[in-house]
Amino acid sequence: MEPVVVEVKGIIKQRLSLFGTMMKTVDTLKPGQSLIVKSTFNPAPLMAHMRRKGYEVQQEKQGRVIITTFIPQTSRVSGNQSPGRIMDIPIEGPEHYLDNRGLTPPEPMQRTLGLLNDVPINHVVVIHNDRVPVFLLGQLDDEEIPYEIRPQEDDSAIVRILKTHPLRG
Amino acid sequence: MHGVRVSRWSLAYFVVALLSLLMAELLLMLGVSDPMSAVSAGWTLVAVHLTTIGWASMLLLGALQQFVPVLTTKDLASQRASGITWATMTAGLLLLLSGFLALPGGALAGGRWLLPVGGSLIVIGVVVALGNLGTTLYRAWPWALPVWFIVTGLGFLLLTVLLGLTFAISLTDPDWMSPNVAAELFGRGLVAHVVGGIAGWLTLTAMGVAYKLLSMFTLAPEHRGWWGRLAYGLTAVGLGDIWVNQWRVVTTAATAGWILAVGGITVYLLDMMRLYRARKRRSMELNARMARGALVALAVLVALGTWARVTHQWGRWALPLIFLGLYGWIGGLGLTQLYKIIPFLTWLESFGKKLGKQRTPRVQDLVNEARDAPAYALYFVAVLMATLALAFHWVWVFRAAMGFALVATADIARALWRVRHPRRSKRSGVSSTVPRLD
Question: Membrane spanning segments where (chain B) (predicted)?
Answer without folding.
Answer: 12-31, 43-64, 84-107, 113-133, 145-170, 190-214, 226-244, 250-270, 290-308, 314-335, 376-394
